[in-house]
């Protein structure tokens, strides 16, 4: 039998002390709440995903500087989906394995469709940037939008078109993916109750470079206007081709037609384009003006709508956690459904917002046009609940 040396005695005593200290000391995670960012930082969705991530990070810094949420600091991790649905799904699982309290992203609807299955199974709140109507039609109680759905936006566009007596026909140009098909279906359905007829339905591809054939087809249709629903980079290419081919009729769309990145890429070709947007830094709101200034100071450029989505999404999560009064994922998800968040109580949401039982939003939105390289708000449109 080996002798029990003093060294072994002190070593065991020290080990025992460490074990006991570990049992009695609070876990480091008790002082933080984890948020996982799963966004498109490369690939076709890089502009959207980077803006969304930067918006999240700006809100996190503000909240942490102000004391956190219920005394806890927010801890973030960031991962790149590469605009690939398969990678997005794997990253969602990694976020769950890392015990994220909530997941932010992706932005592209195709990736959301697969990644949200993982977050739903784990019962983790998931704040997404996608606008495809089908996302929240699947009954997932843990997915929450940070923007208006296509089903809410398109009726507003249809009402605008119905009020323009100079537009009796329209050519629809859309990107043939989950995002584009959802918007295309929604605008065609919404226009059925108006005097405007769809005379051409033109499908394009994600990352498409050459839009000459699509524009020629729209011109040959003799349509009074074009409704364009594509991703940002493709929207800019379409606008440049329309100008090249001498299109001089109205060009109308949604948020992705007149975003700041589109305006920068399209240059003079974006002038006059009209869109319904759920979020814009050019909105005449005090909170939005401050967000715009703070975002530019932090990142050196003007945020598009995706940056605002990420930013306001974090404040939506904060409001729900504070309402529940504890860090309980299921309780927070339940509290978000039907929750009305006012700017008066939670300035970070920027606009009063109500979240419905599907995770969709209802709030004011804007009709804008591009003038001298900037979005200009033509009209503030009320929430659908006030119609």
From TrEMBL:
Signal peptide: 1-29
Listed GO biological process terms: amino acid transport
Keyword vocabulary terms for this entry: Amino-acid transport, Signal, Transport
Record's keyword annotation contains Transport: yes
Source organism, top-level taxon: Bacteria
Sequence ranges assigned to domain Leucine-binding protein in this UniProt record: 32-373
Coiled-coil blocks: none
Family: Belongs to the leucine-binding protein family.
Protein name: Branched-chain amino acid transport system substrate-binding protein
Source organism per UniProt: Castellaniella defragrans
């Amino acid at each position: 039998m080996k002798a029990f040396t003093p060294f072994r005695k002190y070593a065991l005593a020290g080990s025992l002390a460490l074990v006991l200290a570990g049992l009695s000391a609070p876990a480091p995670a008790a002082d933080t709440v984890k948020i996982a960012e799963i966004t498109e930082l490369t690939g076709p969705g890089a502009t959207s995903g980077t803006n969304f991530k930067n918006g999240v990070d700006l809100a996190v810094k503000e909240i942490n500087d102000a004391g956190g949420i219920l005394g806890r600091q927010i801890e973030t991790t960031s991962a790149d989906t590469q605009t690939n649905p398969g990678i997005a799904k794997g990253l969602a699982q990694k976020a769950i394995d890392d015990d994220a309290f909530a997941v932010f992203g992706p932005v592209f609807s195709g990736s959301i469709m697969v990644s949200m299955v993982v977050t739903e199974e784990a019962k983790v709140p998931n704040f997404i940037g996608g606008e495809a109507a089908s996302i929240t039609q699947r009954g997932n109680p843990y997915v929450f939008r940070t923007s208006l759905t296509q089903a809410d936006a398109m009726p507003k566009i249809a009402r605008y078109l119905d009020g323009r007596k100079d537009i009796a026909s329209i050519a629809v140009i859309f990107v043939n993916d989950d995002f584009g098909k959802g918007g295309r279906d929604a605008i065609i359905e919404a226009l059925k109750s108006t005097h405007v007829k769809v005379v051409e339905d033109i499908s394009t591809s994600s990352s498409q470079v050459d839009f000459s054939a699509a524009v020629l087809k729209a011109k040959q249709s003799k349509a009074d206007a074009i409704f364009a629903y594509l991703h940002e980079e493709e929207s800019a290419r379409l606008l440049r081709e329309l100008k090249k081919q001498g299109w001089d009729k109205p060009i109308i769309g949604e948020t992705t037609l007149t975003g700041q990145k589109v305006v920068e890429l399209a240059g003079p070709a974006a002038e006059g384009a009209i869109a319904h947007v759920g979020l814009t830094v050019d909105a005449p709101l005090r909170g939005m003006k401050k967000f715009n200034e703070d975002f530019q100071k932090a990142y050196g450029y003007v945020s598009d709508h995706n940056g605002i989505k990420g930013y306001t999404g974090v404040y939506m999560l904060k409001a729900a956690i504070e309402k529940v009064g504890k860090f309980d994922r299921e309780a927070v998800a339940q509290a978000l459904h039907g929750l009305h968040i006012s700017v008066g109580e939670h300035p970070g949401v920027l606009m009063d917002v109500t979240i419905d039982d599907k995770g969709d939003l209802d709030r004011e939105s804007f009709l804008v046009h591009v003038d001298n390289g900037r979005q200009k708000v033509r009209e503030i449109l009320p929430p659908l609940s006030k119609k």
